[in-house]
Amino acid sequence: MKPTEPAYDAIGDRYEEYASAATLKQAERHSILQMAGDLTGARVLDLACGTGFYTRLFLEKGATSVLGVDLSEEMVRVARRIEADRPIGASYRVGDGEHLGRLGAFDLVTAVWLLNYAESCEQLRAMARGAWENLESGGRFVAFTINPAFDYRTSESDKYGVRIVGESPEDDHVVCHGEFTLDPPVAVDVRRFTTQQYEAALTDAGFSGIEWRAASPSSDDVATHGAAYWADFRENCIGIGIVATR
Ligand SMILES: C[S@@+](CC[C@H](N)C(=O)[O-])C[C@H]1O[C@@H](n2cnc3c(N)ncnc32)[C@H](O)[C@@H]1O
Known about the structure:
Layout: H1 13-21, H2 23-36, E1 43-47, H3 53-60, E2 65-70, H4 73-85, E3 91-94, E4 106-112, H5 121-133, E5 135-146, E6 162-170, E7 173-180, E8 186-192, H6 195-205, E9 208-214, H7 219-225, H8 231-235, E10 239-245
Parallel strand pairs: 1-2, 1-4, 2-3, 4-5
Antiparallel strand pairs: 5-10, 6-7, 7-8, 9-10
Helix pairs in contact: 5-6
């Protein structure tokens, strides 16, 4: 059951503030593009599109069409406003990644920070199934989510723009109490599942060729901030990529 008002309705524009400032977002962007591969001519479904950070990026990188879907009306409103201000051809709709249905035929379905909003293994499976149903045969699913191995107690993730301040176990997963390190901070809870739970959800949905991909900064990010800055990111990253094929 979803809360009556999605958490991100209260975040909206502050997410843009985070996305434009956080170094996590820069390294994540590099990692997502590596996982997505050549986007030329691709039809992309961008789940949990938020304010359209990746929706726009995929179009800039050559995708033919990108449909962004997000649970939060406010996030979609901001994404549409950005599209109206700087048209690039992105389409958006409000929708729940857990109850997606078939929206079209896509070569690539992305879910950057979606799976960590599932509140049970059942919801995780439903999200994976929704992605699978929207892919052409041979199409790929690229997700980025909370790293099952992430240890918030030793993490220096504050400096990358996000932190986990505590965790509580809940049913079949762990709730991570997080914050975007803005001034003032923006609180957001995310959920951590195990590697096995992710893989079971994807396999049950019909995916094969499941691969885990560690996030890494680009050479430009390393040149800008120095290798030492990224040491914690490489050793104990809050996020991790998953690639799977229909
Ligand atoms: C951290 S933001 C990520 C936005 C974008 N993918 C990015 O990386 O910039 C997470 C987004 O997931 C959305 N979200 C959470 N649960 C969802 C669900 N069940 N279906 C669709 N979107 C959801 C939130 O509304 C929010 O916009």
